[in-house]
């Protein structure tokens, strides 16, 4: 749990890798995921680095594998995904693998090209057969148009039965036949008419079934056309127009015998093409099936190899060009594992000189590493969305595990809704190893990644729902109400008691629509409900007033405790970074300002709850009035909550007023005194550490090193820091802005926590409205039709409950809980200005075929 409370200690290590063992060593490091590499060649272009040739080879292999995957998907062959990740290929096998893949690519392209060519020829022959079948009927139809195109006057009186159109005009007419897309027929006919000026006869008919286009492979509707024209020039124009409209032109037979001969030849060729095409497809599928067995491992191996060479390009060579030098960030706890990985890599390569490492001192800020598991990962992501934590500062995710679902549940408090959410999250948790959930769509994937957050949110909502005694807007009487209605009747008391008390009788009950229970009457209030709110409040007309008062005060109490805890965590940061002056000059004044005003407000709320009973509640002073009078100093004396209230409040205001100038001026003046008035020895004894040299504050402090290092080292450090520029005005302005923001933020942030009350009220009212508009109507219907109506009403009620109260209201409460953590809680101690530790790990590489890395 210590690593979740604060990021792990990091060190900067220098790796000395022999040129022959560098590949194997980085392969071992990638499998373990221990270090983050630093780029030592930032000034060198990516095209001028040492291993650019190997990177191009990897990209070429990726291109070939992408082509193989594309062809395998086209053939509907399942791609196996192994559970284990294969290691990076040895250098001796890289060339062999490259040759195999290139040979396989050439073979696949050749077979695919032949297959496409055979398929295109087959489709063209099928089109040709359809064209011959349809145009066979066109000759008989042309007889009807013969008189309009008759050229021989000597034949005007002859019978049409003796001469056909083809017999009389065959020597002078030309024909163009083919197929055209259905959408181009109208424009095609208009173009022929305009260009050929009516010297053509166009006959066309629609095919019964759509055919596949040989060029594009798209299945579309086709029209068969037959164009009769007169003269060579007209024929040339017709063929040009057919080319422009992408018509499929086929030869038109002149005689019936020729048509029959062509038809028989087409049938024979189509049968042969079907046979050859099936054999080609079977061979292609066999090749693709063999490739699919190894494509997964090869994709992973090429990705790992490319990642290794990418890291090697970040290394620099020594003078002899025989050794690579790399600088890496590594957790101190993993140094032994890092040495073991270098030894394994050297042993695998068979090198006589092993690679080694050593740590080097640095003043740079290391990256932030916080180890998480599947339970804490979701909460850590919420914190990282605000900002990655600075190195070694307190991590809010540890406390967010409890506070985030609790604040959500305060706004979402309903036993029924929380239990439904808990069951949904529990279902995701129990099936978290299901492969379909891991590969689900974006929205379901978001719910799956936050399954443990949903689980705790639902569990805490069940708890707060029991506190509110709210289950689908209805109260549950588990322990029995602590209020007794019968005790309000005058008949249940002695003869003398009704004169002193306001009791009920039959006339009062009959003539009053609203009756009020008086807790001061003996026997009416028998004690508080054992757990949560008494269910009788669900029947009261002033229920909303009572719950508003309770939830508003509860929101203020929770908010002030939450913010005070945030300020306290800032003290942990100051102690760790050895800046004790920040505790006395920043944290303590902030705590005094917070507690003397808002902590006192909590005290008054709790004091009034404990001291005043039902009998004395009518004379209890208002907390709001007393809190306002604390700042106004009224001239007349008020009753007050307790004796001696005025001196206590004046003392608290005095402490608050004194804490503000200390908060504004204390830290800048102390840093100025350190810079000008104290010697190096005194500062080193104070035990401060130079953690980050990125602000004026750190410039004025000397890092604490062990005194055993000697005075010379201390003097050098002192001289180095003294030479740095110290700007007192900038430090003062920064602290003034921080102080104003904090003092005003205490007020605005406290008011911001009232959203707990507002959203809880809105959720309860929406739930009540939904019940009143649906379930109450369905339950009040006559018993004859009530059962038939109740089933659809319950279904509609469940749908609206899920989408409105669970999804929409849950999302609203989720966003408000995030805001309370980011703005009101984390800004009290959390900087969030760090960089995330991103290790060189093969586990971060995607194993999907459709993702590019």
Automatic annotation (TrEMBL):
<dbReference type="GO" id="GO:0000220">
    <property type="term" value="C:vacuolar proton-transporting V-type ATPase, V0 domain"/>
</dbReference>
<keyword id="KW-1133">Transmembrane helix</keyword>
<keyword id="KW-0813">Transport</keyword>
<comment type="similarity">
    <text>Belongs to the V-ATPase 116 kDa subunit family.</text>
</comment>
<protein>
    <recommendedName>
        <fullName>V-type proton ATPase subunit a</fullName>
    </recommendedName>
</protein>
<keyword id="KW-0812">Transmembrane</keyword>
<keyword id="KW-0406">Ion transport</keyword>
<dbReference type="GO" id="GO:0005886">
    <property type="term" value="C:plasma membrane"/>
</dbReference>
<feature type="transmembrane region" description="Helical">
    <location>
        <begin position="554"/>
        <end position="572"/>
    </location>
</feature>
<feature type="transmembrane region" description="Helical">
    <location>
        <begin position="451"/>
        <end position="468"/>
    </location>
</feature>
<feature type="transmembrane region" description="Helical">
    <location>
        <begin position="584"/>
        <end position="607"/>
    </location>
</feature>
<feature type="transmembrane region" description="Helical">
    <location>
        <begin position="406"/>
        <end position="430"/>
    </location>
</feature>
<feature type="transmembrane region" description="Helical">
    <location>
        <begin position="651"/>
        <end position="674"/>
    </location>
</feature>
<dbReference type="GO" id="GO:0036295">
    <property type="term" value="P:cellular response to increased oxygen levels"/>
</dbReference>
<comment type="function">
    <text>Essential component of the vacuolar proton pump (V-ATPase), a multimeric enzyme that catalyzes the translocation of protons across the membranes. Required for assembly and activity of the V-ATPase.</text>
</comment>
<keyword id="KW-0375">Hydrogen ion transport</keyword>
<dbReference type="GO" id="GO:0048471">
    <property type="term" value="C:perinuclear region of cytoplasm"/>
</dbReference>
<dbReference type="GO" id="GO:0005925">
    <property type="term" value="C:focal adhesion"/>
</dbReference>
<dbReference type="Pfam" id="PF01496">
    <property type="entry name" value="V_ATPase_I"/>
</dbReference>
<dbReference type="InterPro" id="IPR002490">
    <property type="entry name" value="V-ATPase_116kDa_su"/>
</dbReference>
<dbReference type="GO" id="GO:0046961">
    <property type="term" value="F:proton-transporting ATPase activity, rotational mechanism"/>
</dbReference>
<dbReference type="GO" id="GO:0001669">
    <property type="term" value="C:acrosomal vesicle"/>
</dbReference>
<keyword id="KW-0472">Membrane</keyword>
<dbReference type="GO" id="GO:0007035">
    <property type="term" value="P:vacuolar acidification"/>
</dbReference>
<dbReference type="InterPro" id="IPR026028">
    <property type="entry name" value="V-type_ATPase_116kDa_su_euka"/>
</dbReference>
<feature type="transmembrane region" description="Helical">
    <location>
        <begin position="786"/>
        <end position="808"/>
    </location>
</feature>
<dbReference type="GO" id="GO:0051117">
    <property type="term" value="F:ATPase binding"/>
</dbReference>
<dbReference type="GO" id="GO:0006879">
    <property type="term" value="P:intracellular iron ion homeostasis"/>
</dbReference>
<keyword id="KW-0175">Coiled coil</keyword>
<feature type="coiled-coil region">
    <location>
        <begin position="94"/>
        <end position="128"/>
    </location>
</feature>
């Amino acid at each position: 749990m210590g690593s979740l409370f604060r990021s792990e200690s990091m060190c900067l290590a220098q790796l000395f890798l022999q040129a022959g063992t560098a590949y194997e060593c980085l392969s071992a490091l990638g499998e373990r995921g221990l270090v983050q590499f630093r780029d030592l060649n930032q000034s060198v272009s990516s095209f001028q680095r040492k291993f650019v040739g190997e990177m191009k080879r990897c990209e070429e292999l990726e291109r070939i594998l992408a082509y193989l995957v594309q062809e395998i998907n086209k053939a509907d062959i399942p791609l196996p995904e192994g559970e284990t990740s294969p290691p990076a290929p040895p250098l001796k096998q890289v060339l062999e693998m490259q040759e195999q893949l290139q040979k396989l690519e050439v073979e696949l392209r050749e077979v695919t090209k032949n297959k496409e060519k055979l398929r295109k020829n087959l489709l063209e022959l099928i089109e040709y057969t359809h064209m011959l079948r349809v145009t066979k009927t066109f000759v008989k139809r042309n007889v009807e148009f013969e008189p309009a195109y008759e050229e021989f006057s000597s034949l005007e009186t002859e019978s049409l039965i003796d001469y056909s159109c083809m017999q009389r005009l065959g020597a002078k007419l030309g024909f163009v036949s083919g197929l055209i897309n259905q959408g181009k027929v109208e424009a095609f006919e208009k173009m022929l008419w305009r260009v050929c000026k009516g010297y053509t006869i166009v006959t066309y008919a629609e095919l019964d079934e759509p055919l596949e286009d040989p060029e594009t492979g798209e299945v579309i509707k086709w029209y068969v056309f037959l164009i009769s024209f007169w003269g060579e020039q007209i024929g040339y124009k017709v063929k040009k127009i057919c080319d422009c409209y992408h018509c499929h032109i086929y030869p038109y037979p002149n005689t019936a015998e020729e048509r029959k001969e062509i038809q028989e030849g087409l049938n024979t060729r189509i049968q042969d093409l079907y046979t050859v095409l099936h054999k080609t497809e079977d061979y292609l599928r066999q090749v693709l099936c063999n490739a699919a067995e190894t494509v997964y491992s090869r994709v992973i191996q090429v990705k790992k190899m490319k990642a290794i060479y990418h890291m090697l390009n970040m290394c620099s060579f020594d003078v002899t060009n025989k050794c690579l030098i790399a600088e890496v960030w590594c957790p101190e706890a993993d140094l032994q594992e890092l040495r073991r990985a270098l030894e394994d890599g050297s042993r695998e390569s068979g090198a006589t000189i092993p690679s080694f490492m050593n740590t080097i001192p640095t003043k740079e800020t290391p990256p932030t590493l916080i180890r998480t598991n599947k339970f804490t990962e979701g909460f850590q992501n919420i914190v990282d969305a605000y900002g990655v934590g600075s190195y070694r500062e307190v991590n809010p995710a540890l406390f967010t595990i409890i506070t985030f679902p609790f604040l959500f549940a305060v706004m979402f408090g309903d036993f029924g809704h929380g239990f439904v959410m808990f069951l949904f999250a529990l279902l995701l948790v129990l099936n978290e190893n299901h492969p379909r959930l891991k590969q689900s769509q974006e929205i379901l994937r978001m719910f799956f990644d936050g399954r443990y957050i949903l689980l705790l949110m639902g569990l805490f909502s069940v708890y707060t729902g029991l506190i509110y005694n709210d289950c689908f807007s209805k109260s549950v009487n588990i322990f029995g109400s602590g209020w007794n209605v019968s005790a309000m009747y005058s008949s249940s008391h002695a003869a003398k008691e009704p004169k002193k008390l306001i009791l009920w009788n039959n006339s009062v009950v009959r003539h009053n629509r609203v009756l009020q229970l008086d807790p001061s009457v003996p026997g009416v209030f028998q004690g508080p409900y054992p757990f949560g709110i008494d269910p009788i409040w669900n029947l009261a007309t002033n229920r909303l007033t009572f719950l508003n008062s309770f939830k508003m005060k509860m929101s203020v109490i929770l908010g002030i405790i939450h913010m005070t805890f945030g300020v306290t965590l800032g003290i942990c940061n100051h102690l760790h970074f050895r800046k004790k002056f920040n505790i006395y000059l920043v944290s303590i004044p902030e705590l005094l300002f917070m507690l003397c005003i808002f902590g006192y407000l909590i005290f008054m709320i709790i004091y009034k709850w404990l001291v005043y009973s039902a009998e004395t509640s009518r004379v209890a002073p208002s907390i709001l009035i007393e809190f306002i009078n604390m700042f106004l100093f009224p001239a007349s004396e008020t009753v007050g909550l307790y004796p001696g209230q005025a001196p206590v409040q004046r003392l608290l205001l005095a402490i608050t007023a004194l804490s503000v100038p200390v908060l504004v001026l204390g830290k800048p003046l102390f840093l100025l005194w350190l810079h000008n008035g104290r010697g190096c020895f005194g500062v080193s004894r104070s035990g401060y550490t130079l953690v980050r040299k990125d602000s004026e504050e750190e410039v004025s402090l000397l890092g604490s090193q062990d005194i055993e290092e000697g005075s010379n080292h201390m003097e050098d450090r002192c001289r180095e820091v003294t030479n740095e520029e110290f700007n007192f005005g900038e430090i003062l302005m920064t602290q003034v802005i921080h102080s104003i923001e904090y003092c005003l933020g205490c007020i605005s942030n406290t008011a911001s926590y009232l959203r707990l009350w507002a959203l809880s009220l809105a959720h309860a009212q929406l739930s009540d409205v939904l019940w009143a508009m649906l379930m109450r109507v369905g339950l009040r219907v006559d018993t004859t039709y009530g059962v038939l109506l109740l089933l659809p009403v319950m279904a509609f009620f469940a749908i609206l409950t899920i989408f409105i109260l669970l999804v929409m209201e849950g999302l609203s409460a989720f966003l408000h809980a995030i805001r309370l953590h980011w703005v009101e809680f984390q800004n009290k101690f959390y900087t969030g200005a760090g960089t995330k530790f991103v290790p060189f790990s093969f586990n971060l590489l995607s194993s999907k075929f459709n993702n590019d890395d």
